[in-house]
Amino acid sequence: MRSIQRRLGFGLIGVLLGAGLLLAQSTFWMLDAGLRRYLQDDLREQAEALLTSLARGRNGVQLDEPRLPGVYQRPYSGHYFRIDLPGESWRSRSLWDHALTDSSTTGLQAGLVDGPGDQRLLLYRADYRRFGQTISISVASDYTPILQAYRRVQWVGCLLGLGVLVLVVLLQRLTVRRALRPLEEVRRQVEQLQQGQRQALDPGVPVELEPLVAQINHLLRQTESTLQRSRHAVGNLGHALKTPLAVLSSLAARVELAACPELQASLQEQLAQIEQRLARELGRARLAGEALPASHFDCAAELPGLFATLAMVHNRGLALDWQAPPGLRLPWDREDVLELLGNLLDNACKWARTRVSLEIAGAPEGWVVRVDDDGPGMAAEFRGEALNRGIRLDEQVAGHGLGLAIVRDILDAWHGRLALQDSPLGGLRVAIELPARQEAS
Amino acid sequence: MRLLLVEDSVGLADELVTGLQRQGYAVDWLADGRDAARQGSCEPYDLMILDLGLPGKPGLEVLRDWRAQGVATPVLVLTARASWAERIEGLKAGADDYLCKPFHPEELQLRIQALLRRAHGLANQPQLEAGGLQLDEARQVVRCGAEDIELTAAEFRLLRYLMLHPGQLLSKGQLAEHLYDGETERDSNVIEVHINRLRGKLGRTAIETRRGQGYRFAGVR
């Protein structure tokens, strides 16, 4: 899953790390260069002091040892020198048995050189002309304490930097979460829309989200009105075609035609076919399917009306009952659900002897609908056939096997599944599994 | 039995009126919703057949008007709008039964018969039975014991009305109002003649005369 939060986090960490390291390293370099420049002056003064302590003695040039500072006498003191004369070379006592590295250039040496006892030395060399000969003086001082100090500073700096980084990232998460809260709210509302718990998105959002929310609401309204319009048009078409069909049916049943029973039967059969086809296609055209995300079916509000209608249509003392968890709402269009349940129950009422029962219940991944009757039921070997053959279960009773075909169309649109089973009431059970609506299917 | 048919398609209305008259109903036909709303609430119909797609005023509104004015006459809604959502809406507006177009003429006949029986407290009878008589509405024959008695169209209409109101006192005026449509000349002597013919076929005691009040169907027991 791609998250804005995570992306912002990674971006920030990258930038902070890069900038921090660059800053720390360049500061370190500049500090080091400055320090070395300072030490270079110091070393040059030491070299010049050494030069002044050279004197011409009885055996040529001599070093006035007692005048030298004590640091050159004490072994490993951190201050060293070497004086090269043609044919002669002196070094400080502090070097003990370590030989100071030869340097090819004058001035401060670019790198550090090895000193006695693991020391790292900053080396300075200067050439002078004195007493008619070239005198090369190398002075070195121990750089190790400074290196150690650097390391300490680096450690502390690293820890501090890390702390600051964590703090900044945490603060950034907080800020981002606060800034994205309206987005999260919209996401939640879209989810509610999907589950049919909401008709439109709340328009009170930050200005950045306003066009999005307005567009979604506009689309919702447009889809709904398009559906209404097409349903209305389908209704009108149905009305326009069915009235003449009713006239034709009535004409075909006339007494005058009873004299030619074959003609009459043929007419009636053709009319019945037109009627079936028309009803099926009009029914299909009416389906909202999953076009409307904001639709819902409130069981407690709609089922009593449906059952009253069924009781009116099947006025033969059937006991009709329904069970659904209180407050259950199915996330599909009201008319679609009514059509599905109406057709299933209508079919059950045609077959039932005394009782029809409907149960709607939540399942782990959606809902189950069970319609039971205490009619004659259906032998198991016919069930598969009945399902495969375009479903004509109620053919013998009401003359057309439409109900379940429409049920099939609705279930196809919802990705639902239908199964025929034995009912505990003794007849047939139609069991339907409805998956929860996918967010983007 | 006097019916009001409200249907805007002339072709269908012609067919229905002819069929219904053949079955012994007196039928008034209206095509406009506004006329239907007015006439349905002042004429004493026994049943009203209402199409929902009407000019002038939508059928559902006509139905709501009738019910709001306290008209309790059974209403059979006839419509091409067959979805369950629309059926439920029709029921809520006060319909007693719902028949979707296109329909078989016999289906309409059966629904009308059932609705009339139900409205007179004789629900769940396959045939109209009252006072020891069984009326076969399809063949227009009355069965008395083991014997089938042939009836003329006028006798059938009168007997059906009497059998739907067993034991009730019915004036000549009331009988005339319910047996003839709005356009037929109503002559109370004709009713007297038919009553006498029925007595001839069913026995003198089947229909009692209350002087100055009217008739009462007593049955043949």
Automatic annotation (TrEMBL), chain A:
Query: What's the main place this protein lives?
Result: membrane
This entry's Enzyme Commission designation comes to 2.7.13.3
Query: SUPFAM superfamilies this protein is in?
Result: ATPase domain of HSP90 chaperone/DNA topoisomerase II/histidine kinase, Homodimeric domain of signal transducing histidine kinase
Task: Kindly state which reaction or reactions the protein catalyses.
Answer: ATP + protein L-histidine = ADP + protein N-phospho-L-histidine
Question: Which Pfam family, an example, fits this chain?
Answer: HATPase_c
Q: Does the keyword Transmembrane apply?
A: yes
What are its GO cellular component terms?
Answer: plasma membrane
Where the record annotates domain HAMP, the positions are 177-228
State the top-level EC class: transferase
Family matches, as PANTHER family: SENSOR HISTIDINE KINASE TRCS, SENSOR HISTIDINE KINASE YKOH
Q: What is this protein called?
A: histidine kinase
The scientific name of the source species is: Azotobacter chroococcum
Automatic annotation (TrEMBL), chain B:
Write out the GO cellular component annotations.
Answer: cytosol; protein-DNA complex
Residue ranges of the annotated DNA-binding region, renumbered to this chain: 125-219
SUPFAM superfamilies, A to Z: C-terminal effector domain of the bipartite response regulators, CheY-like
4-aspartylphosphate-modified residues are where? Answer: D51
Tell me, what is an example of a GO biological process annotation in this record? regulation of DNA-templated transcription
Report which superkingdom the organism of origin falls in. Answer: Bacteria
Q: Which residues form the Response regulatory domain?
A: 2-116
Which PANTHER family does this UniProt record tie to the protein?
REGULATOR OF RPOS (PTHR48111), RESPONSE REGULATOR PROTEIN CARR (PTHR48111:SF37)
One molecular function GO term is: transcription cis-regulatory region binding
Q: What is this protein called?
A: DNA-binding response OmpR family regulator
Q: Where is the OmpR/PhoB-type domain?
A: 125-219
SMART domains xref list: REC (SM00448), Trans_reg_C (SM00862)
Quote the Pfam families the UniProt record gives: Response_reg, Trans_reg_C
UniProt keywords, alphabetically: DNA-binding, Phosphoprotein, Transcription, Transcription regulation, Two-component regulatory system
PROSITE patterns assigned to the protein according to its UniProt record, in alphabetical order: OMPR_PHOB (PS51755), RESPONSE_REGULATORY (PS50110)
